[in-house]
Amino acid sequence: MASRTDPSRRPRTARTPRRHAPVHRAWVIALVAGLTIVAAASFAAVPGLLVEPLHTEYRWSRGAIGLAASVNMLLYGLVAPFAAALMDRFGLRRVAVAALGAVVVGAGLTTVMTAPWQLTLLWGLLVGAGTGSLAMTFAATVTHRWFTERRGLVVGALTGASAFGQLVFLPALAWIVDHQGWRPAVVTLTLTAAATALLVALVLRDHPADLGLRPYGATEDVPRPEPERGAARRTVRVLFASVRDRRFWVVAATFAVCGASTNGLLWTHFVPAARDHGMAVTTAAALVSLVGVFSLAGTVLSGWLTDRVDPRHLLALYYGGRALLLVALPALLGPEAGVAIVAFVVVFGLLDVATVPPTILLCRRIFGVDGAVVFGWVGAAHQAGAGAMAALGGLTRDLTGGYGAVWMVAAALCATAVPLALRIARGEEG
Predict the structure, then answer these.
(1) How far apart are CA 385 and CA 425, in angstroms?
(2) To pair with 189 at 20 to 30 A between CA atoms, which of 96, 220, 303, 418?
(3) Are 189 and 195 in contact (CB under 8 A)?
(4) Do 137 and 83 meet the contact criterion of CB atoms below 8 Å apart?
(5) Nearest residue to 376 via CA among 360, 389, 394
(6) Termini Cα distance of the chain
(7) How confident is the model at residue 4, as a pLDDT?
(8) d(CA 192, CA 136)
(9) What was the pLDDT predicted at 167?
């Protein structure tokens, strides 16, 4: 008969971190999660660089290439809420490794494709599903499990890592595409995703209690929650419950506008649009990369502000600023990267991903413990808006020879999002 002090009989609970630990493990987990998001987000920078090379090599229409990017963005959004529930069921580490594996397979096979439908299947479905599993819901889940303090700051930093991923890779990828071709650029990203999968498998952990720790800032032990079975059913159940709340539709509508004006438009079509105005591809890619620099700063600042300012007011400010910038953009594009276009890039970068921390906090306040899954569905609306704008941009370029009308449509959508954001009921954190 086992003694009462038998360790195998003790319940597994969290304990206070050792005092000599210089850094709480939560910050290490946040760093690894950030690197994972950086690796996944780097794939979002590629479609804008591939439009012209694929059009030139295969003679595929820009609309067909835009369709693959659209499917990628749509799957990116649709997978996110299921990924959040799967993380509750199987853990952060397993889901992240599986997602990176899908990205490696999809991107690797893209280098030997021969038809547009293969681009849609590989880059649209596999890469879209893999990167979508490591999107904003991943950041929200890591933050919720490992932190009780500094949540706004951590969410801001992790979502800013998405823009930082594009910042790190975009200039190098543009140079590789220009000098070596598009395939070496895709291979570079594939190897990066494979290396990141190994890092995640070795370091990432699902919950502080797995290491006998408390979440950062917690004053009491927090036991690891039991794995929740029926992840897909829970995700759908949360959707059916949330769609009966008018606030869900308002939040989703504003976030769809966010996706249309950033991922769907600027990240996908800025480089080819600038090229139409005579700007070198490497210069245009550097400008988009600069958006990423200031996106990181803007998102961290937005996370800090979200802890202190009504998130509805922040959203209204961000969307109003985007509307004004997009109206001005056609007049700023030209063969050279002058002061005006650099100023546009800086300000747009500060607003680019800044909408994420306020939106996450609103979902948490309104929907309580289901907030992460609800945010996954709100993120699906974001990607639906992005996918629609990506397809519309390619189609408009094919039909009219330019992107001018698309900038105005996006500006009008951002202006509409301002009163919508102010109408979101405040809610209380559950």
Answers:
(1) 23
(2) 303
(3) no
(4) yes
(5) 360
(6) 44
(7) 43
(8) 20
(9) 65
